[in-house]
Each structure stands twice: as C-alpha cells, then as structure tokens.
Amino acid sequence: EKTKRIIFWIETNDPKAIRRTSMRLGIRTAAASINEKNPDPEAAKMTFLKGIELYQKIAQGKVISPLYDTSPDIKKEKLLVIGYELFGKKIGIEIPKKRINSILVNLGFGINYLEDSRIQVIVPSWRANDINIPEDLVEEVARVYGYQNIPSILQPIVYIDQPKDMEDIFVFQNKIKLLLKHLGLNEVINYSMISKSMIEDGGLKIENHLRLSNSISEEIEYLRTSLLPSLYKNIQDNSGRKEVMRFFEIAKVYWLKKNDLPDEVYKIGIATNTDYFDLKGIIEAIYKELNIDFCHSREGGNPDIIEKDGVFMTEIDLQKLINNYHQVPKFKSLNPYAVIKLDKTFELSPKTTYAIVRQKAFKSKLLQKIELVTLFNNKLTLRFYYSLSSRNITEEEAKEELALVR
User: Fold this and answer.
1) Domain boundary assignment for the chain
2) I need a surface site. Which of 5, 160, 234, 380 has the fewest CB within 10 A?
3) Where are the alpha helices (DSSP H) in 94-163?
4) Distance from C-alpha of 294 to C-alpha of 279, rounded to nearest angstrom
5) β-sheet bridge partners, residue 272
6) What stretches of 230-378 adopt beta strand conformation (E)?
7) What are the residue boundaries of the B5 domain, all occurrences included (predicted)?
8) How far apart are CA 125 and CA 75, in angstroms?
C-alpha cells in the first residue's frame, strides 16, 4: 500500500551466454529456456508498452519519466532480393507469382517490387535468425504451398566426370592391393598423425612435420611425412604373436609447403621381418605387374630398402609408378641366330653398382639381356647374352663389347 513508484524494466540477453551458464551450473529455468532460443528483441519494446498500458488501466498509474533504451546494437532490417525463377528451379514446379507473394505476406514478410521478375523481401525481426539466404524463402513458400502438392519425379541422372589423376590413383591402388594380397601381405591402416617419438625413432626431422594445434593425444600430434614409422611400429607391436609378418599400407603423406597447405602425396609402404631378398622380390613383383623396368633411373621411382632391428622397409611413390606404367608389356621377336653367353665378375662400390653396370652394358646394340649368376660379399657375377637379329656374330665381337663394360 505504501508503494509510490514502480520501475518498469525489461532486458534481452545474449543467448549463447545464457545457454553456456545454464549448462555449466546445471540450472534449468523457464527464463533460460526462452532466452537461449534468442527471442525477438523487437518484442521487448511491445511487451514493455503493453505493461505500462495495463498498469495505467488497472492501477491508475501515471508515467513520470521518458522511456530509456540502452540496447548496444540496433539491428537493421534484413533485405533479400530473389527472382521468381528460383522458386520454380528449386521446388520443381511453377507457382504463380501472386501465390508466392500472398504466402510471403501472410508469413509476415514485406515485399518491394523491383521489376517483373524480381522482388525485395523484408525479413521480419522474429525471423531474422533463420532467414538468411534466398533459398530460405523458397523453403517457406514450399512449406506453406504443401509438399504433397509437389509431384514426386526422379531427378535426371547427371554423370560428373571424375578427375583423371584421382581415377588413376584409385585404379592403381586396387591393382597393387590385389597383387600384394596374393603375395601374402596384410594391409594395415594407420592414423595420418604420429607421435614425436616415432618421428625421432625413424630418423626424421621434427621441423619437417606439420603439428596439429588441437591434437587430442601426443600419439597423434604430427602429420606424417613417411609411412615407415607407422609400419615399423606395426611390426614391433605384433612381434611375438606371429613368426612372419609382412605388412603394407597405401596412404597419403604430408609435405610442408611455405605459406600454403601441405602437399598430399600417395605412397606405398611395405615392411617385413623376413629378409632383404624377400622385400626385394615383392618390389620386383610390383614393377613386373606394372610393366616397369625395375632398374630404371631414379625418376622411375626405384625405392631404397631400409633395415632397422631386423625389420626391412621400403616406400614407393605411387604417382611415379603411374607415370612409368605400361599397360602392355614390351615384346621382342625371337632371334633366329645363335646367342653368345659371357660371364663377368664386378667388384661393387659406391661408384660401381648393378644399375650403372647395366646402363653401360645396354649401350651395346648386340646385348639382348643380363642375368645375375652369383653375389658374394661385394663381388657380383653377371651373364651377358649377345646376338643380332640380322646375322651371326663371333665370340670376338661379343668379347669386345663386354670389355667396354667396366
């Protein structure tokens, strides 16, 4: 009874802050449920004025101060321009323009007619949060028009050409996976991320790896630049469970690029706990299947074999295999003339490798093929086959050609 003055006060809140605080404190109230859904801020003024009206009518109150609005931001009207043809294109049927206008007006939208084919739509404040693009207006019209009135027609089948390089990669992946499966290898699938310790154990440099800023574990912190650390770990984790382990993985590695996203390169990683010659045979089988000369230049992607703690590993660039792939193997007609076979032993050194010997030998027009006879320590014995398709050659001619191979 002694109350003389009443302050009318109403507020609007940040819905994200209300939601976050309510969930953190575990307090759910009717006010929180309403405010976290971002109610129309323009409704605050209407509610405020209605409250004053009721107070004057019921309690004979008098307004003794102006209305103060301390809203930090005043939202402008949201305007969307849309062409009538978009409704037909998205919905699938032509709806009369008058029907479209009627639906939008009845939903509270304002319309300004720009021209015969386009309109400017004024979005009401209570729809400002969910009407953002012209397609939202199309959805509103379709909803009110009635989905049941839209005929069910299958869309025409459209074939989209896939990028040729990606198609080649998938074809080669399946081809190589099938081959390695028949050779008795098991495929493994590892994370694209590895730990710092795996990088260091693999003899790689940390600075060459891209680090994730939001990694959920130290075990998956760096994008790998090689498949071998993961394959080595696979062998180590399974040691003692099986005597012979032969694993492979075909996946991307990530190479750093300055001021850009990393290069994503497909690699084939192979690891085995058998021996060097077993892994070499697997590599040769891959090259033979793809009709690639195993003793090609480095540009052909010849891999290195790494040994660590009895685990033999190699990594092959898939794109280089694709670039050197021959769909049909090269055939040579049978030679009708005699073949002269000569053996020669070479002492291997960094400057004298099998690839170098082979390259020098095949400069001869008489040489048909080379075979490995024996390999002992650093001594390599090769058998050379000399012949011509036009005539018989003498042994002296063959020896002269062989003498040039040093």
Assistant:
1) 1-74, 78-149, 164-324, 340-403
2) 160
3) 97-106, 134-145
4) 14
5) 246, 312
6) 246-255, 263-272, 305-308, 311-317, 340-347, 367-376
7) 75-152
8) 9
Tens digit of each residue's pLDDT (9 = 90 or more) over 93-139:
999 999 999 999 999 999 998 888 899 999 998 888 889 999 999 99
Residue-wise pLDDT for 283-308, tens only, equals 999 998 988 876 644 444 567 889 99
DSSP string for 8-43: -------HHHHHHHHHHHT---HHHHHHTT---THH
Q: Which fold has domain 164-324?
A: BirA Bifunctional Protein; domain 2 (3.30.930)
CB atoms near residue 185 (< 10 Å)? 19
Alpha-carbon span 164 to 322, nearest angstrom:
12
Instruction: List CB contacts of 138: < 8 A, sequence separation 6 or more.
Output: 82, 86, 87, 90, 91
DSSP 112: E
- Scan for tokens 């009708």, then name that residue: 336
First to last CA, the chain: 119
Could you tell me the two tokens for 288?
A: 């033979």
Q: Which fold has domain 78-149?
A: Phenylalanyl-tRNA Synthetase; Chain B, domain 1 (3.30.56)
